[in-house]
Amino acid sequence: MEAQPLRKIIHIDMDAFYASVEQRDDPSLRGKPLAVGGTRERGVVMAASYEARPFGVRSAMPGATARRLCPDLLFVKPRFEVYRQVSEEIRAVFARHTEIIEPVALDEAYLDVTENLLGLPTATAVAKAIRAEILERTGLVASAGVSYNKFLAKVASDHRKPNALFVITPAMGPDFVADLPIGRFHGVGPVTEAKMKRLGIETGADLRAWSLERLKETFGSSGSYYHAVARGIDERPVRAHRIRKSIGAETTFSDDTAAYEVLAERLAPMVDKVWRGAEAKDMRGRTVTLKLKFSDFSLVTRARSLSAPVPDRDSLERIGLDLLKGLLPLRRSARLIGVSLSGFSQGDEEEAPAQLGLGL
């Protein structure tokens, strides 16, 4: 069997993007703990500056909790039009170096630079050039991870944030993954992390010790992914112009509940996350779907389609709550709630071509 050519992948992640844009545009905010969002009733923190993070303030945290942790925390309303404009400037920098760009959000993207447009000798050189150009053009700092696959590039970009460039070579990959705490595996969320730790899986080495069959039995379809990345293997290509059929978010509770007030409160940050994702991709959908998983693991979904795209975040939440009310009274407690937005207008998907290249 012919060996797959070595890919050269860069993952770019802007440091505290929304907060950094606000601090760039308002000098009075610089050097101070800052949160973007969290100003609405039941609102959440969309982004936190690095000055706020030592207090424990994190994205997706309820605004009230963030205020308790950091009484001096400053809040500003998000300006998505500005963030989109800055994101377009950043993507213009990417486009100078490669045509194979997979945006993940306004502040994050994968780049396949196996062959780069400027003929730079290594992927590391490309990453250095991109970071310098972004700083010069926008005044903002980007962290970059360079590796031979998407999983490791993502891990690398986060390894020494902020303002970092880190490279994981093929020789480093398997050992690096072996030492990696399981919570830092992309694709392992808090619920799965807790389950893995209960099973004695604390690091990549622990995960690698499990057979493919056992992982599939325990984690279902995700078992194959965990088996591969525990060995530093990830064959997913960088896909340009990906089609998104839906944008969704869900959360699993530590305690099951059938109370409407509790479910409504837990739905709100999921609505924020979905709307953030839609804003980041400049996408508008007509269909809202609510999902509940019950204590017996049975599922129910309810959907509503509009004649025009959902206009704003509050409308998305209102429709989600209406769908939830339509399920009341619940005959059993729920362990998960989720919401998604779909019905987008999209074009054709293009596959990224396989390419050959030099070292990282």
From TrEMBL:
<feature type="binding site">
    <location>
        <position position="107"/>
    </location>
    <ligand>
        <name>Mg(2+)</name>
    </ligand>
</feature>
<keyword id="KW-0808">Transferase</keyword>
<feature type="site" description="Substrate discrimination">
    <location>
        <position position="18"/>
    </location>
</feature>
<comment type="function">
    <text>Poorly processive, error-prone DNA polymerase involved in untargeted mutagenesis. Copies undamaged DNA at stalled replication forks, which arise in vivo from mismatched or misaligned primer ends. These misaligned primers can be extended by PolIV. Exhibits no 3'-5' exonuclease (proofreading) activity. May be involved in translesional synthesis, in conjunction with the beta clamp from PolIII.</text>
</comment>
<dbReference type="Pfam" id="PF00817">
    <property type="entry name" value="IMS"/>
</dbReference>
<dbReference type="InterPro" id="IPR001126">
    <property type="entry name" value="UmuC"/>
</dbReference>
<keyword id="KW-0479">Metal-binding</keyword>
<dbReference type="InterPro" id="IPR053848">
    <property type="entry name" value="IMS_HHH_1"/>
</dbReference>
<keyword id="KW-0234">DNA repair</keyword>
<dbReference type="GO" id="GO:0003887">
    <property type="term" value="F:DNA-directed DNA polymerase activity"/>
</dbReference>
<dbReference type="InterPro" id="IPR017961">
    <property type="entry name" value="DNA_pol_Y-fam_little_finger"/>
</dbReference>
<dbReference type="InterPro" id="IPR043502">
    <property type="entry name" value="DNA/RNA_pol_sf"/>
</dbReference>
<feature type="domain" description="UmuC">
    <location>
        <begin position="9"/>
        <end position="189"/>
    </location>
</feature>
<protein>
    <recommendedName>
        <fullName>DNA polymerase IV</fullName>
        <ecNumber>2.7.7.7</ecNumber>
    </recommendedName>
</protein>
<feature type="active site">
    <location>
        <position position="108"/>
    </location>
</feature>
<comment type="similarity">
    <text>Belongs to the DNA polymerase type-Y family.</text>
</comment>
<keyword id="KW-0238">DNA-binding</keyword>
<dbReference type="InterPro" id="IPR036775">
    <property type="entry name" value="DNA_pol_Y-fam_lit_finger_sf"/>
</dbReference>
<feature type="binding site">
    <location>
        <position position="13"/>
    </location>
    <ligand>
        <name>Mg(2+)</name>
    </ligand>
</feature>
<keyword id="KW-0548">Nucleotidyltransferase</keyword>
<keyword id="KW-0460">Magnesium</keyword>
<keyword id="KW-0235">DNA replication</keyword>
<comment type="subunit">
    <text>Monomer.</text>
</comment>
<keyword id="KW-0239">DNA-directed DNA polymerase</keyword>
<keyword id="KW-0515">Mutator protein</keyword>
<keyword id="KW-0227">DNA damage</keyword>
<dbReference type="Pfam" id="PF21999">
    <property type="entry name" value="IMS_HHH_1"/>
</dbReference>
<dbReference type="InterPro" id="IPR022880">
    <property type="entry name" value="DNApol_IV"/>
</dbReference>
<dbReference type="InterPro" id="IPR043128">
    <property type="entry name" value="Rev_trsase/Diguanyl_cyclase"/>
</dbReference>
<keyword id="KW-0963">Cytoplasm</keyword>
<dbReference type="InterPro" id="IPR050116">
    <property type="entry name" value="DNA_polymerase-Y"/>
</dbReference>
<dbReference type="Pfam" id="PF11799">
    <property type="entry name" value="IMS_C"/>
</dbReference>
